[in-house]
Request: fold
Amino acid sequence: MNSLINRPEYLEQLIQNKDVDLVKIVTGIRRCGKSSLLDLFHGYLSENGVPDENIIHMNLESLRYRELTDYLSFYDYVSSHIPEHGKTYLIFDELQNVQHWEKAIESLRLDFDVDIYITGSNAYLLSTEFSTLLSGRYIEIRMLPLSFKEFLTFYEFEPGVSVEEKFQKYLKFGGMPILREYRFNEARINQALEGIYSTVILRDILQRNNQTDQETLEKIMMFLCSNIGSITSPNKIGNILSSEGDIRSGKDKNIAGKTVEKYISMLRSAFVFYSVGRYDVKGKQLLKTLGKNYISDMGIRNMLLGYRDADRGHIIENIVFLELIRRDYRVYIGKVGETEIDFVAEKPDSKVYIQVTESMQSPETRERELRPLRMIPDNYEKIVLSMDRSYITSYDGIMNLYLIDWLLS
Reply:
């Protein structure tokens, strides 16, 4: 077990939910660390006195279980291994490979004294049949690649490397845990990311959606990667791709917004992208149109497009978005009058408005970033995050924070 690196925030969530009569489902993009988390949890159970025979831990991508393709064979196999005495912990990795697995899970939950943990690399896992069958009886733990804070504990750096240089590596290579093995060797890292990307596209998306055209999917993926943090609509993306002659759909040259919408939702289901809606701060309502899309791992984007410093503004905005999600906020893009606020982040009892910018040095930028925040009529916290180490900590009550400090706070 020693090669496993702890991810305490996630492990803690599993421990807090242990023995609660809910199915624990860990979701997230492929290779973000879900299986390792289950291994860590398995270790935790063993250390806390759960006998081996009371832990059934199966990875359904292993050929050992190739016969267990449907819920009946799966149920029979698992139930024949559950001991008569004591509570049994059932840990199932990549369960989406078993057809109608939700029926088996519900039955195991009813028939035995068990506590159930599941992972899956796509949101079809939480599809409608499942939600209906288990409504209100599961808890989803959404796992993301490493945060910057985790990144710092995960990697060994040469002595004397500054936190800024480490952050630069994080912006470039992203947070996939597997990269640790390559010690920042760029060629190897890109190969590994390419492998993850192909698996996600081929296995988690194309295999599940047979009407999908791989080329179209990849074009849309590239478009979203190039336009991170830009406000777009599926129709607009369709028009741009059609006019570039990239996508042809039969007689009609135009790729429809509906098609784009469908492909984006597939990328969302494989946890590659997150879509964020817009919220009218003054009218206090969600707007139907024009959201933004953020990628779950910067490394994948940079592997596809190459890393350019010119994109830094959008890259740091993406990193702030992921951090807000990690911190359990619901996130929207804010609209105030004619201006935009990068993020409106809400929890049941709090709200924070955030602007993200590379630098606040020039007066024009400062004015542009502060103006929308000044227009907000309420008293919730307002923050500007930038890459400046500034002695100015606030502008009329609007906090001015160094991005790296905020990420490590």
